[in-house]
## 1
Amino acid sequence: MAITLTEAAAERVRTHLHSRGRGHGLRLAVKTTGCSGMAYVVDFADGVNTCDKVFTSRGIKVIVDDESIAYVDGTEIDFTTDGLSAAFRFNNPNVTDECGCGESFTVKSS
């Protein structure tokens, strides 16, 4: 599978990479936290490690570490604005449940 970006998400990353003046792309990872178990970690990637998986979507590199790929493989990343709120949104086919606040999720067990 792959990690993909909507046009809105790609444009948001492209704009921020340009304003930063550096970066290889968007880094996506997961960490254990919250009431449902896992949460997304999104940051700019200033490098690519040997154990990273690199996907290119709409001209933007999305970099995922080996440990996170099992939890996010197949995810589409969107960027939405709602009034004063703006955030990345994740359409992750591996998610089986999310907490009420939307900060954490549970994935299918292997």
Note: Residues 47 and 109 are 31 Å apart (CA to CA).
## 2
Amino acid sequence: MSALSGLKRFKNEATLKTWVYSIALNKSKDFLKYKNRKKRSGKIISINRVADGDRSEYYEPSNFVHPGIELESKEQMNILFAAINQLPENQKSALILAKLDKMPQKEIADILGLSLKAVESLLTRAKSNLKKYLEAEGVLILKKGKR
């Protein structure tokens, strides 16, 4: 909605996609700041709950992964995301755009309003900081193709 309402301010200095990504990134950061300031209250509702009249049923989606392996993977993902959240905001943004959104560095530079070299530097520092954090947590880091 912010992109639509601000379309008059789009100046063609970047692609429309990059401009929209910038807005989404800034809105996400604003939301996280708001969420961290706001008192946490409310109730938790499972996404696996199916309402059926007056009663609620819970179902488990079919899963062929052994529970032990699934738990280990979940723990590793929690450690990884905790490590990512430890990064400075600019490193975290660059890393998420590069690795999770699979975005090219040039596009990341446009979104963050930085030079390509600055984005390369951010990504290098983010990876280095992640490695230090994970090693401090005792997490085994495997190189691609090695076990």
Note: The chain has two domains: 1-36, 66-138.
